[in-house]
Specification:
With 360 residues, the protein is an alpha/beta fold. The protein is built from 14 helices and 13 strands.
Length: 360
């Protein structure tokens, strides 16, 4: 699969003016209407970094099989999107993709949610109910936060996964199902096994094909593209038109470590769009750091605004890309602007991009 096709096919575009007050250079940042390819099994996944592409290579490899997959990664890294991609790339794509957050269901109700129950099985069971395993028959079941499943429920889940059969609560009739399981966790299951909080046999049943999802700080080159994606999305939802965003803002967002990962970035851009009125889209520094002042903003009026600072930012990124301006790993992508815009800035700031190139 050509991942450049997945992320670069853009049937439509929306213009976002990209201004810098220091040198008067005007440019246009193209916010892509469809960053992901329509009908792609990677729908909703944004980025071109090697770390992300490595994950999608693994998805491509395991999806056609029916093997269990265990997704490992910090909170907010997009594990559900990867689980959905596994389903959408599989032969089960036309069947149900059923989700269950094991941490969100009270312990007493988890078995009912998983296996279903018969009428009268317990107080309040006034009608028969199908469980998630029933609903996912012939499809995929995504068990999010699997590390939070109670120890007492783990043997029943293991049997259901191993034998592809179970009984509803209050029933003696065994039901057979055909379910492909994808589980996810942000916890260290091996450590939990050592602490007798998680069964080793269930772990090995789930861990047939593990995939580690990188945190956003390990794929920082994807941040400008994600910022564009979320800015476009929220601008459309809130019926707003953004006048501009500075190089310094994008640079600051790219430098931040994002402990909350993509979810935190999404929330920050949504918050910025809520308070946005006119001018450059700005992000308060306090939203990114506990030490930041509530009134301090990451925008030209609050941080570097001179041509010197522009020159420093561009030179730093050119050094990282060894003088490469265009392409998915070029300086223009890292700065979140078209290559033609960056070329104009390089020329106006009298930067010698060739000095950053290395000889092979």
């Amino acid at each position: 699969m050509n991942f450049a096709d997945v992320f670069d096919s853009c049937p439509g575009e929306t213009n976002l003016r990209f201004e810098n007050e220091s040198n008067g250079v005007d440019a246009t940042l193209l916010l892509k209407e469809d960053i992901e390819v329509p009908d792609s099994c990677f729908s909703g996944i944004v980025g071109q970094s090697p770390a992300l592409r490595g994950v999608l290579d693994l998805v491509d490899l395991v999806a056609p099989s029916d093997s269990s997959v265990l997704l490992l990664g910090e909170t907010g890294t997009g594990k559900e999107l990867i689980a959905r991609a596994i389903h959408d790339c599989s032969r089960r794509r036309d069947r149900s993709f059923v989700k269950l957050n094991c941490a969100a269901i009270p312990t007493g109700l988890l078995e009912s949610e998983l296996f279903g129950h018969e009428r009268g099985a317990f107080t309040g069971a006034i009608a028969q109910k199908a469980g998630r395993l029933d609903l996912a028959d012939k499809g995929s079941l995504f068990l999010d936060e699997i590390g939070d499943i109670p120890l007492e429920a783990q043997p029943k889940l293991l049997r259901a996964l191993q034998e592809q059969e179970f009984e509803r609560l209050g029933s003696t009739r065994t039901k057979k199902v055909d379910v492909r399981v994808v589980a996810a966790t942000n916890r260290d299951l091996e450590e939990m096994i050592g602490q007798r909080q998680f069964r080793s046999d269930l772990y090995y049943r789930l861990n047939v094909f593990p995939i580690s999802i990188p945190p956003l700080r390990k794929r920082a080159e994807d941040i400008p593209r994600l910022v564009q994606y979320f800015a476009r999305r929220f601008a459309r939802r809130m019926n707003k038109s953004i006048e501009g965003i500075s190089i310094e803002t994008m640079d600051a967002l790219s430098r931040y470590t994002w402990p909350g990962n993509i979810r935190e970035l999404q929330n920050v851009i949504e918050r910025a769009m809520v308070v946005y009125v006119k001018g450059n889209l700005s992000v308060k520094k306090s939203w990114l750091s506990r030490e930041g002042s509530d009134n301090e903003q990451i925008q030209p009026s609050a941080i570097k605004t001179s041509a010197t600072s522009d020159r420093e930012s561009i030179r730093r990124v050119l050094a990282e890309t060894k003088g490469r301006v265009s392409g998915p790993f070029g300086a223009a992508t890292k700065l979140g602007m078209p290559a033609s815009t960056l070329e104009s800035k390089i020329k106006s700031l009298n930067i010698n991009k060739h000095s950053f190139k290395t000889v092979d």
